[in-house]
Design brief:
mainly alpha; two-stranded antiparallel sheet; 2 strands; 67% helix; elongated
């Protein structure tokens, strides 16, 4: 699958997890984990590269800004007592904003990316996303292949390494620690 297909498939997973969290707040953490992993992958491997195309800069920055807004909603919801009668409203607000964001990506940004990236690069990024998703739901971010990274000079390679040990992604450290939603 190419990167657009991979992202779209994970969007379906995010929508499903949101629906599950709405009826079962115990699924909230799983929804958040997948959402944070998804945004981490998108920003490090998709939007950072897409911003290299002048015609995609505005949409890319807008999407990253929306990630930041989602990050703030996540932090607010995480600090809210789970047993409070209004906790489901927090889940609903996060889910509705997230679904709106996913719809915009699928309708506006992904078609643009399909036009701008070479087919081979879309396929390479798709494989990388699959690998990254597995690793991020576990431990670490893989590097971009050298041939693809060379096409985008000055791009910083993603890394989660801290000294000799790798940092596990959690909802409490990932969003701020990786700079999700951070405008550069």
């Amino acid at each position: 699958m190419n990167v657009v297909e991979t992202l779209t498939a994970h969007h379906a997973t995010l929508r499903q997890l949101y629906r599950q969290a709405e009826t079962n707040p115990n699924k909230f953490d799983t929804f958040i984990q997948h959402l944070v992993v998804h945004h981490t992958m998108e920003e490090k491997y998709f939007y950072d590269l897409l911003q290299g195309f002048e015609e995609a800069q505005h949409d890319s920055l807008e999407a990253v800004n929306e990630h930041h807004i989602i990050e703030m909603i996540i932090k607010d919801a995480q600090g809210f007592p789970r047993d409070h009668r209004n906790f489901p409203i927090k889940i609903e607000g996060l889910g509705e904003y997230t679904v709106h964001h996913l719809d915009e990506e699928e309708e506006e940004i992904f078609p643009l990316a399909t036009q701008l990236f070479e087919a081979e690069d879309l396929d390479t990024l798709g494989a990388l996303f699959e690998k990254a998703k597995e690793e991020l739901l576990g431990v670490s971010l893989p590097e971009l292949p050298k041939a693809l990274a060379a096409k985008f000079p000055g791009l910083q390679q993603p890394s989660l390494e801290t000294g000799a040990s790798q940092q596990r992604l959690t909802t409490s450290n990932t969003a701020f620690g990786l700079g999700i939603g951070g405008l550069k």
